[in-house]
Amino acid sequence: MSAVPPLSGLLLVDKPAGMSSHRVVSIVRRLTGAKVGHAGTLDPMATGLLILLLGSATKLSSLLLEGDKGYFATALLGRETDTLDTSGATLQESPVRVTRIRLEETLAAFSGPIMQIPPMYSAVSIDGARMYKLARKGIEVERPSRPVTIYELELCSFEGNEFEISVVCSKGTYIRSLIADIGHALGCGACMSALRRTRSTGFSLEDTHTLEEVENLGADKLLIPPERILEHLPILTPPDFFMQLLLHGQRVDGVKLGASEVKYRLYGENGFIGLLTRQDEKYGLVWRL
């Protein structure tokens, strides 16, 4: 009997509210027995697209972390909290006198490249210390602002003290901070009350599966091939002599391969092999199927 090949690929999960991303990873690891990583966590209160990588595909996580993200978020005006969402302790409450026109004008001011200070309750490190660990001890430190880009920011609904927005943004953007900054600009404060990730690095919510589906159907039937991550890269199929050098861990000059791009999908006579990258004008196989 031939051995069952190890699982390798992407598993797109619709994370439920109230569960940490690391808990989802743990559940999938238990169900599959495979090595499991992720391509960007979601806060426990958030739901939606969580990209998991299984087996050898975990080595491709950095390619997915770089991509843009999409979210649908709900915000509560007139309340500021220590976590910037409704799960935190209330720091201040203010009267709300905001019209739809003023809200739309304020949102427009936050579109495009902006500077953003990450929240204290986040996984960002300052001098080697995770900020959320400092925050839990009541320690607040100065955080440098970072450039992020808000590509799309649309007001979906506004009723009473609550509004909903659709956001497409660059990596590293904190929607909690975006909402808090919008509230500050409006003069009444705001905090996030719900968040759902709708897209990430070319994948969307429509591609996801619930944990129940993963358990009942089996992760092996739901996996997306690792090559899907690299679809945007050009294909390179070198002559057999150079292919053997690459497969044995040697690096080959780009001129000999006829290559000039930074990254390629490497193909052989039997199909997809792995990821080829350039360093100092030579190419090497950094990941293989």
UniProtKB/TrEMBL annotation:
Query: Where would I find the Pseudouridine synthase II N-terminal domain in this sequence?
Result: 31-175
Identify the keywords attached in UniProt to this record, alphabetized: Isomerase, tRNA processing
Q: Does the keyword Transferase apply?
A: no
Q: Which InterPro entries match?
A: PsdUridine_synth_cat_dom_sf (IPR020103), PsdUridine_synth_N (IPR002501), tRNA_psdUridine_synth_TruB (IPR014780), TruB_C (IPR032819)
Per the UniProt entry, the Enzyme Commission number(s) are 5.4.99.25
The UniProt GO MF terms for this protein read: RNA binding; tRNA pseudouridine(55) synthase activity
Annotated tRNA pseudouridylate synthase B C-terminal domain residues: 176-216
Q: Which CDD domains match?
A: PseudoU_synth_EcTruB (cd02573)
Q: Name one GO biological process term.
A: mRNA pseudouridine synthesis
What Gene3D superfamilies does the record point to?
Pseudouridine synthase
Cytoplasm found in the keyword field: no
Quote the NCBIfam families the UniProt record gives. TruB (TIGR00431)
Protein's name in the database = tRNA pseudouridine(55) synthase
Q: Which organism is it from?
A: bioreactor metagenome
